[in-house]
Amino acid sequence: MDLAEWDQRHRDAFYSVKEALPYLEGVFVAYNSNIDAIKHLNEEDLAKLLELFEAAEIQEKISAYPREIKEPLDFLARLMISMRDGKAAEVPTYTAETHEWLKGHLGFDYARMGGQAGIIANLLVHLGLKKVVAYVPWLSEEQAGYFAPSESLLHPKVEGGKVFLKHPLEAYKPGIDSKVNWILEYSKDLDVSCGGNTFKVPRDNRLIISSRPKWLRLDMDKEIYEQLDSLGHVDGAILSGYQMIKEEYEDGTTYEDYVAKSVRAIEKLKSLNPELRIHVELTSIQNRVIRKAILEEIVAGHVHSLGLDTVEVANALNVLGHEELSYAVIRKGENGIMALYQGAVQLLEDLALERVHVHCLGFYICALAKGHPLTLKEHRDSLLFASSLAATQALEGKIETLDEAEAGLEVPVSEKGLEDLENFKLYCVGRKLCSPDEFEYGYIYGVKHDAVIVPSKVVSKPRATVGIGDAISAGAFVAMLAKMKQKWAGK
Ligand code: 8BR
């Protein structure tokens, strides 16, 4: 595969999608947003935290390996474990006291928009979409301030029993708390000394304390659900945050109630516009019952498109009963990309989807059901557009305008990605999934499905990695929607 050729294809795809984007009338984005409070820990911060507790009690907690932050000591133990191993971790907390304690004893360096729906809504506005309707069931005043200050960004607001669309700053629910996640970053070689134990942090990484307040519900306000047509015309919806659903709630409701409500909301959205496409963005879901319910009950048969990374493909396959394939995806190795491709196809079939988009470092795979209105070239353009967005996001840490996103075009296509695809070519050609020529274009024509496989751009020293996955999935999905609208307009 030719690197220069793929660079040129990225360039052509970017401008072709740029031309198509104005055909989009609107996109709906729900449900999760939060505030990320970021703190980079130095030795002084650590020493201050450690002197608040006895070394022995910290050690005891480390051995107990708390899976939830109930008290400050749980937090300190998980921080020590994460730093000792240099491993990223995300630990939930269900009490607002954790936030207060961290604010009082540590403080943060800066805060930003967090959560897939919040990040995606801002990105789409920055890309110049005419109308982005966000919906966050727990939109607080503080949270509203993290949405892009643009007239194109709207949120439903109930007034006198009627629903209006307003900027989040005029649509928040007064008096509700904010969901704040703490991101505690640390650097390689930081010296840590706790009692008799000393170690050096082996690599840069982070611990996330994700806040799951008791009042958090993945739900749509009754009036908004009933008057969903007040959103006006939308071409597509990007839904995320289902991982917030809990098995049981203190008021006796269960995940089944929230799964049913989620499905009703999706069906209502579809009833507004028969051409509307729905994309669900997955993230890691620890609880297997919830993961299975999301896939089998919310996604299967109700939505069109699914976006996920390698680990999530493995996790999804695992709960759907494909353990062997799931392990092959996780083991990576020589057959990893084959397993990933088979996994994407399996998800497409099991969940009756139109499109499954898997993103990895260096290449993307998109499995497609037969009969999609776009050609494989148009799907390829959508993926390549997403790859350029990802490169800009990694390079700059943000994308403020569509013109700024052109910066990503200067990032080279990943050589490692191309190499991986060369190996995959042998498999595809050997199995007669495609001819060598077709593979060079990134196209696989199957009997029951098609697929597009592209190498992607990778920034060697990324400024940040947050939001890249969201930019890839949302970017490719809206590019696809825009291309469809352009086609239907006869252009
Ligand atoms: P998740 O957060 O969903 O895992 O997605 C992250 C995605 O970001 C990866 O799949 C990869 O494609 C992309 N990515 C990462 Br991580 N680092 C990148 C980099 N330096 N340049 C471009 N893309 C990157």
Give a structural overview.
There is one protein chain. The chain is α/β, with parallel strands linked by helices and 491 residues long. It has 2 domains: 3-34 and 115-176 and 214-489, Ribokinase (UDP-N-acetylmuramoyl-L-alanine:D-glutamate ligase, 3-Layer(aba) Sandwich); 37-112 and 177-211, Adenosine kinase, small domain (2-Layer Sandwich). 42% of the residues lie in helices and 20% in strands. The protein has helices at 3-20, 43-50, 55-64, 72-85, 96-105, 116-126, 141-144, 222-226, 255-272, 288-299, 310-319, 323-331, 336-350, 376-396, 415-430, 436-441, 468-488, and strands spanning 27-31, 34-40, 89-93, 110-114, 132-135, 153-159, 162-166, 180-186, 191-194, 197-200, 205-211, 236-240, 277-281, 305-309, 355-359, 363-369, 443-445, 449-455. The strands form 3 sheets. Strands 7-6-5-1-12-13-14-15-16-18-17 form an 11-stranded mixed sheet, sandwiched between helices. Strands 3-11-8-2-4 form a 5-stranded mixed sheet. Helix 7 links the parallel strand 5 and strand 6 (153-159). Helix 1 (3-20) packs across helix 14 (376-396), helix 9 (255-272) runs parallel beside helix 10 and helix 14 packs antiparallel against helix 17. 47% of the residues are buried. The mean pLDDT is 94. The structure holds 8-bromo-adenosine-5'-monophosphate. Residues 309, 359-361, 390-391, 394, 458-459, 462, 465, 468-469, 472 line the site of 8-bromo-adenosine-5'-monophosphate (8BR).
